[in-house]
Amino acid sequence: MIIMLIITLGIFIYMYFTLRSQIKDITAQLDFIEKNRSNALITIRVKAGGSKALAAALNEMLENHRAERVMWKKKENEISCIYTNLSHDIRTPLTSLDGYFQLLSESEDKEKNKRYISVIKGRIKALSDMLEELFMFTKLENKTYNIKLYKCDMSEIVRETLFSYFDEWEKKAIVPELKLTEEKLYFYGNEQMMHRILQNIIKNVLEHGEKKVEICLNSIKNEIRLTIQNEVTKPDEIDISRIFERFYKADVVRSKTSTGLGMAIAKEMTEDMGGKIEAELNDNIFKVSLFFKRL
Asked: Where is the Histidine kinase domain (predicted)?
């Protein structure tokens, strides 16, 4: 009996000092990992006395902490990228404005002054649109945009939006080929947001597209499908995987008055209404497709 007690006491003392040593070792490992920003995980020598469960819990916490650190680092890089793009996008029209104001102040030719004023108005409008686009994207990203969804008629929204761009189509000598159903296509959405989505896609067409534009609206089973496609002159310069990426500009030369946020906003708004948006490029035909559940 005494021998058994001695053996038990010996085992207890051994386990006590082993676990005590292991806790010190775990503490030292944690200290090293934290100080050196190491990606190492906690290791243990003896898997007893709950030390295995403790190490597993600590390792899970470390991995979660690292994932959060990576996420915040990514956010920091994104914010830095946003400020860089923002300053560049705003600086371009401002520099142009400064130049035309200088020409206007130095010129006494009435015809030239009219032209300068017209250009200045255009640049101010472009700058205003850019700032409004940035403001809208920020609200969507921060989920501060109040979205009210209700029953809408896609057919009516599409026709209204297309008609509002009549002058722009005419200036570009573009006659869109329209294939629009006569049916009323109801869906659960927001008219203002849907107009904005279409405006952004059409602006993209007007800025980057050529004369051949085709717009189709129909319904297959319980799904509303809207496609807008146009010819592009430099398909090799378009990275289709980045079309909905914020600040992406396929043609920098032709995007001097654009933030590159239009398609990103279109995607955010479409998804906020429960829809889906896709883009594809086949040879020199660029196509954007929108899908909504029909009521």
From this structure: 85-295
